[in-house]
Amino acid sequence: MYFIGSKTQRNAIRKNMSHQDWTPVVLGSKKKSNGENEKGKPTTTPPSSSSSLSNVGVYKAASDDDVKKTKYVLKTTSQAIMSARTEKKMTQKELAQKCNMDVSIINEIERGACVYNATHINKIQSVLGVKIPRV
Asked: pLDDT by residue (tens digit) across 104-114?
């Protein structure tokens, strides 16, 4: 950095900036694994035993005993959509435009990698004009 002016002016600027605090600030810190926070007080939630992704796609139902898995588009549904689209000689992009959806949604539905969404299937069914199996 270059300063314009005399040496005394530069020293005055340096002295004026000496009041600033340049100590580092830690915004987030790791929780202690023994169930205590930074101040040594116990936390309200117990520490997690593992950090695996075993519960991804699982949600609790109304009662604690019922655990439901996320529904994905069935293979029969995706195959029916793909065959109906190819019979109409449409691309995924054309079908997406007519259904007012993104192309990636059509692609995921046809691969069976999409979470089941009845409104998407209803739109595709109405545009293609065929009955699509859902079970």
From this structure: 999 999 998 88
CA neighbor of 124 nearest in space, from 73, 75, 85: 85
Nearest to 102 by CA among 110, 92, 117, 112: 92
CB of 43 within 8 A of CB of 37? yes
Angle in degrees, CA 120, 126, 127, rounded to 5: 90
Q: How far apart are CA 25 and CA 17, in angstroms?
A: 19
Strand-pairing partners, residue 36, are 42
If one counts the domains in the chain, the total is 1
Residue 42 phi, psi dihedral angles, 5° rounding:
-70, 145
CATH label of the domain that carries residue 101: 1.10.260.40
pLDDT above 80 for 20: no
